[in-house]
Amino acid sequence: MGRRRKNKNRIVENVVILDAGAEGKCIARPEEADGRVVFVTGVVPKDVVDLRVTKQRKSYWEATAIKFHSYSDERVDPFCEHFGICGGCKWQHLSYERQLFYKQKQVKDNLERLAKVELPEITPILASEHTTFYRNKLEFTFSSRRWLTSEQIATGQDFDNRALGFHIPGRYDKLVDLNECFLQAEPSNSIRLAVNKYAREHDLEFYNVMACEGLLRNLMIRNSQTTDDLMVMLQTTAFNEDIEKLMQFIKDSFPQITSLQYVVNTKRNDTFQDLDIVCFDGKDYITETMEGLEFRIQAKSFYQTNSIQAYNLYKITRDFAQLTGEEVVYDLYTGTGTIANFVAKQAKQVIGVEYVEPAIEDAKINSKLNGIDNTLFYAGDMKDVLNEEFLNKHARPDVILTDPPRAGMHPDVINMLLRIGAKRIVYVSCNPATQARDLQLLDEKYAVKAIQPVDMFPQTHHVENVVLLELK
Ligand SMILES: C[S@@+](CC[C@H](N)C(=O)[O-])C[C@H]1O[C@@H](n2cnc3c(N)ncnc32)[C@H](O)[C@@H]1O
């Protein structure tokens, strides 16, 4: 306890930042930390800084840079005025080339350190064609608790406390009032700014998350990157005359919107999966296309947020699967069945499993819409659905595609994969650490044959990784 108190807020001087680590933090190993790793925020590798220790655990410390002695040559000027406050693009101060380098390293380090299996050479990461404006969906929150910077507070000015934007990292109650955001193409910024201005001018109440009061909660904008479709959905706590006028204002100001919707949410949380969405104008979906296939995306549907790079990710997945048209393919964690439908033409049959029921409905609609008749979709928890009974009822898979959430696959699912013994598994992951853990478990029967990292999220530390496994 005494030691803890001694080190908390401790200043460590002249520390060289060594590497980029997990969750967008960087790594240092100053002598003072006695062999522990120190995770540092606000820096890039090769910066030399003084640190203040903010957290200490047995095996690591966390720290923040309080003084820069020299800046790394890997730095670039961040282009967003909200950088450093907004949680959105934490790596904007690192050149894109170095972002790719550290993502590749993240995959390599995790697989080597945690999987401890024989690995082939890792193919260089596939860069994203667009490094700004690459997202097809953003959700902005209304709040009566705007985050003010220390510079703003120092002016002594009276600021409007309302905000429409993103949460400050680690704060559920404080938000940045966004001006220009570089994540989603126009008219995303224009729509958000117009709605923000209208709401202030008409004194519409921004939600207070502490008191659970206020009218305006959330604004979702989804823009198809392959068609002209554009969806806007407003989340409010009531639908009244004021909201009707706001909806009409959005419709009149942005005639390019093809799907204008709203949802009334009086719950404490922002999720709307269990609520009825009302279509105010236009269609209740947008469409993305891929190799002539059409994917219908409703407000509740999941779709990869970087559509252009998603196509590349799916092509890699399909190449790794090496389908000849004869195979039965299982697509685990299928979401809205996009991968399943994408590979269906090259397979005898594709069976997709996913636990969100509406997503499974979308998957079926998308098969039908595209005249695909060799897919089957089932909703349920993977560890419960994928059992002997399921395998007896359906053809056994020759190839398994799996794209689990960040937590990776449940041990029961891995055991089932080992029991099934498909000749090939293609493992798509958004978390190389859990993927590495799963590869070690699969090593009993499967050898890693190819590894391809993909950058879906420029300006962030996130990396996607596709691994091909073959039965030994
Ligand atoms: C990374 S997404 C995969 C998306 C999909 N492959 C695509 O490219 O659009 C992971 C999916 O796993 C689903 N999921 C998470 N846990 C699950 C579980 N225990 N059983 C079944 N599905 C699950 C999520 O709902 C989500 O759709």
Overview of the structural elements:
It holds the Pfam family tRNA_U5-meth_tr. The active site is at 430, 430 (nucleophile). With 472 residues, the protein is α/β, with parallel strands linked by helices. It has helices at residues 2-7, 96-115, 150-154, 188-201, 241-253, 307-321, 338-343, 357-369, 382-385, 388-393, 411-420, 432-442, and strands at 11-16, 19-20, 26-28, 37-41, 48-56, 60-70, 137-143, 163-165, 216-223, 230-236, 259-264, 277-282, 285-290, 293-298, 328-332, 349-354, 375-379, 399-402, 424-429, 446-454, 464-471. It is built from 12 helices and 21 strands. The protein has a 7-stranded mixed beta sheet, with helices on both faces. A 6-stranded mixed beta sheet has the order 1-5-6-4-3-2, with no helix packed on it. Helix 2 (96-115) packs parallel to helix 12 (432-442) and helix 4 (188-201) packs antiparallel against helix 5 (241-253). It binds S-adenosylmethionine.
The first-level CATH class name of the largest domain: Alpha Beta
How many DSSP E strands? 21
The coarse silhouette is: globular
CATH architectural grouping of the largest domain: 3-Layer(aba) Sandwich
The fold-level CATH name of the largest domain is Rossmann fold
- What is the terminal separation in angstroms? 51 Å
Percent range of helical residues? 25-40%
Number of domains: 3
Distinct ligands, ions and cofactors found in the model: S-adenosylmethionine
Largest sheet: 7 strands, mixed
Protein name: 23S rRNA (Uracil-5-)-methyltransferase RumA
Domain TRAM: 5-67
Active site: 430, 430 (nucleophile)
Keywords: Methyltransferase, S-adenosyl-L-methionine, Transferase
